[in-house]
């Protein structure tokens, strides 16, 4: 294997930037493995700590290190999870631009799930099922609030193993769970760390990225990519609700999945929301009932019986401002509130509207339509990768400066520099407000609906077309008239009288 040689001495130093200090997250997810007690920055054989300077740690690449070893040591995961970070250094992470420049990021290409081959569909469904059954190698979940986290005897920490997929569900549940205010009191529902604020897009982006990376590790396939569901197809048919994908409808119960789908075997977690709210317990990893789904079947709300239209995507991509005060579900002319689906697709806020992402959730009409439970339905993954694809396309088209993301006055957890609850290690909204291909190691293969023409454009085009037709008719008429006049002048109109004579003589002499 060839060694990876770096070109100059200067280049042999890499920068580790200190991440945000301000935390909103409580340490509710902990590492299973103990972090080493002293700072041994050896990271395998690849890197050697050379010095600390203000806010930075410098490394040198050891001689003989291959590029692959170098990248393994540099990736965020190997640093943060397994190597050398004792508690005091858990805030440190690798500057993504370093991974980029060292060409360490392997790009996962997220594709339309309907365009996967039969084999790719089978592998994706089976990978999800494996994630539902595989215990997370690094994370456990807290099953009690902070007040009871050390257990009844004060010495038994209340953490549990959880599978990779159930951790994905749990993190969403935790982010929307109500705040317990005490026995006999109603829990407070005014805090949502992942919806109804600018963090909606950045929070779900990280949630998906964490699942994708966990699945890449599980499959030992760094190029594994989550596909997406283009839910903006209009109509009332769920195209991905087939047994080779997310499960068809059962023939016996319109709210259940067909027994031919592996997902009919899945059981949901975080269902006992009443207990959490009245007893102050926290969702644990207990699996309870099957997934419920009845696409387009909400008879009480005809408005959510149809999926969004392609034009809704074209419209929302034109909303130029990322978010607007009050940075909430009432924001108007806000791209975030539009794609989230509390505004009309053109951006104007209307309390009765449900569009785009929200409409796709409500269309599912079952597990996938209830916020504390929705990721239990694996359609959640595909619905949110598509939402994230639209976000990435918006970032690409509008090239916003990082300061268009609000620094203050957003709901708790949603400000730019805040850590997103409950992710561990801490990660800020700002870190996810970047284009994915250049910064996060994945991209989307997608085509976007073109904006239909406006009335002014249609009138302008009609006038131009009419002028072209008039010009063509004029030119054709002119040509026809000229041709006619030439015919009347004789068959050799270019020859005047004297040449005509010469021509006659010449023809005679030849004869
Ligand atoms: O899981 C979700 C379910 C939702 C329902 C609505 C709604 O607009 O009523 N919004 C939702 C977001 C979700 O994430």
Question: What's a concise summary of this model?
Answer:
With 511 residues, the chain is an alpha+beta fold.
Going across the biggest sheet, name each strand in turn.
2-3-1-4
Count of distinct strands: 8
Question: In percent terms, what proportion of residues is strand?
Answer: 5-15%
**Structural class designation:** alpha+beta
The total domain count is 3
CATH architecture of the largest domain: Orthogonal Bundle
Largest sheet: 4 strands, antiparallel
Q: Which stretches of 5+ consecutive residues score pLDDT under 50?
A: 1-44, 76-92, 506-511
> CATH top level of the largest domain?
Mainly Alpha
Please name the fourth-level CATH homologous superfamily of the largest domain: Di-copper center containing domain from catechol oxidase
- The average pLDDT score comes to 82
The residue fraction in helices comes out at 25-40%
User: What is the C-alpha radius of gyration, as a whole number of Å?
Assistant: 31 Å
Distinct ligands? ligand L3BTUZDS
* Termini separation: 89 Å
**Which of globular, elongated, flat, extended, rod-shaped describes the shape?**
elongated
| SSE pattern, N- to C-terminal | EEEHHEHEHEEHHHHHHHHHEHH
CATH topology heading of the largest domain:
di-copper center containing domain from catechol oxidase
Number of helices: 15
Keywords: Copper, Disulfide bond, Glycoprotein, Melanin biosynthesis, Membrane, Metal-binding, Monooxygenase, Oxidoreductase, Signal, Transmembrane, Transmembrane helix, Zinc
Family: Belongs to the tyrosinase family.
Main location: membrane
Pfam families: Tyrosinase (PF00264)
